[in-house]
Write a structure and sequence with these properties.
There is one protein chain. The chain is an alpha/beta fold and 422 residues long. It is built from 17 helices and 17 strands. It has a six-stranded parallel beta sheet with strand order 14-13-10-16-15-17, with helices on both faces. Strands 2-1-6-5-7 form a five-stranded parallel beta sheet, with helices on both faces. The two termini are 22 Å apart.
């Protein structure tokens, strides 16, 4: 279904003028988006069609609950509408919320109520509003500008409104990252020239340049946005997961070797497929364990298993075994033709460990393949930590204390923090 949006306002001409213009106007005219305007004054009573009155206790004028309620009820019943009220006290508008509102507008009538003066009667907000939304920590003269902003942001997600779908997906914040810089003619202006790579016609080089610039901008201008961005498309080289069964610690703090479990193999392989990891590598010095891994993987990549569950087959093809973690890192170096940046994980506090957001920004700033090292048993040994390029601080639960997560849980959490954005 196409989005249905109704804007309730005391100033319909203001809304109508904007909706008739540009990309949004063409989207409405073509029928891709259904936007209607409801005048609050049409539901006011009395000779003067009064819609506002003085605030009890002193203060300015406030929109009355009665006309607002009648206007909203005229649009759709309670179960068939979703009412949004722009307000400085509302939740800050962000891209994922816009996408939620887009989905809602395809299922119900999205009703945006424009406040004015000092705001709206609280009794209307309490009984009718499903969500209050703010554009930021500032105050406008009314809710019309936020209503238009919400309508525009929702509408441009509709296929065909903007034109190219990839143009929407390349925008700032769609993947969590800021957009790359844009240039047009002339090639030189006020002593500044367009970067040569954009003039050369090499599409691959252009895309690499734009990804790098997008990452650079996000880190410098909005480092907070990196935390919720999926950075895989912005990395120039591959990402790998390495699960170590040696050298790891046992319960007595001694270096030893742990056994491999089928649950780890299946769950971590599926997580790696989901987040675009190139290889899920397992390091163990035990030949029998490596053969067991190959046997489990081959069940799903060959014969009946492969045809029974092709998705599982694709995940298990990412599994590769090594006798030592250094061999795995060397293999990545040869494959990528670059020394990998290794990130060791730990379940316990460790001197020099970095918060995951710092590690995430660091990956964007370098052109090296990445290998995440995960330990089993009671964690990685000092030998591995000393070898790694960075150590990531522990995952902390709601209690803020150490909790022994399974390695497959830790892998899922880390991969989602770095590469998930939806």
């Amino acid at each position: 279904m196409k989005p249905r949006i109704s804007i309730v306002t005391a100033f319909p001409d203001l809304i109508r003028g904007v909706l008739s213009l540009s990309v949004l106007g063409r989207g409405i005219e073509s029928g891709k988006v259904d936007v209607s305007i409801v005048n609050i004054r049409d539901f006011a009573e009395g000779r003067y069609r009064q819609i506002d009155d003085y605030s009890f206790g002193g203060g300015g004028m406030v929109l009355m609950a009665g006309p607002l309620m009648a206007a909203v009820d005229s649009i759709a019943g309670r179960s068939e509408r979703y009412v949004v009220c722009p307000s400085p006290q509302g939740v800050r508008l962000y891209q994922e919320l816009v996408e939620d509102l887009h989905r809602i507008s395809c299922e119900k009538n999205l009703v945006i109520v424009c406040g004015h003066y000092e705001g709206i009667d609280e009794r209307f907000a309490e009984s009718c509003a499903d969500l209050e939304v703010s554009l930021g920590d500032f105050v406008l003269t009314g809710g019309e500008i936020p209503a238009l902003a919400i309508t525009d942001a929702v509408s441009r997600l509709v296929d065909g409104v903007v034109g190219r779908r990839d143009a929407v997906e390349e925008d700032s914040f769609f993947s969590g990252m800021l957009d790359h810089p844009h240039y047009t003619r002339p090639a030189e202006f006020a002593g500044r020239t367009v970067p040569d790579v954009l003039l050369g016609g090499d599409r691959s080089a252009i895309e690499s340049f734009r990804r790098a610039e997008s990452a650079k901008r996000t880190i410098s201008r909005r480092p907070d946005a990196v935390a919720r961005a999926g950075i895989m498309p912005y990395l120039g080289r591959g990402v790998y997961v390495l699960q170590l069964h040696h050298p790891v610690l046992n319960r007595n703090g001694m270096v030893g070797t742990t056994a491999i479990t089928g649950l780890d193999l299946h769950d971590i392989a599926r997580a790696c497929l989901t987040y675009g990891i190139k290889k899920y590598m397992v390091a163990t010095p035990l030949h029998t364990q490596r053969e067991m891994i190959k046997k489990v993987a081959s069940h799903w990549t060959e014969g009946y298993g492969a045809s029974f569950n092709p998705d599982r087959a694709e995940a298990m093809r990412r599994v590769k075994t090594f006798g030592a973690f250094t061999q795995a890192l060397k293999w990545v170096e040869e494959r990528e033709r670059s020394v990998p940046f290794s990130v060791a994980t730990t379940a316990k506090p460790r001197m020099g460990a970095l918060h995951w957001t710092r590690v995430k920004s660091g990956l964007l700033e370098q052109d090296r393949p990445t290998v995440f090292l995960f330990g089993t048993g009671y964690g990685l040994s000092d030998e591995v930590f000393d070898f790694a390029d960075a150590v990531m601080a522990p995952i902390m639960g709601g209690r803020g204390v150490y909790n022994h997560l399974s390695v497959r849980s830790a892998v899922g959490i880390v991969l989602d923090r770095f590469f998930g954005f939806r």
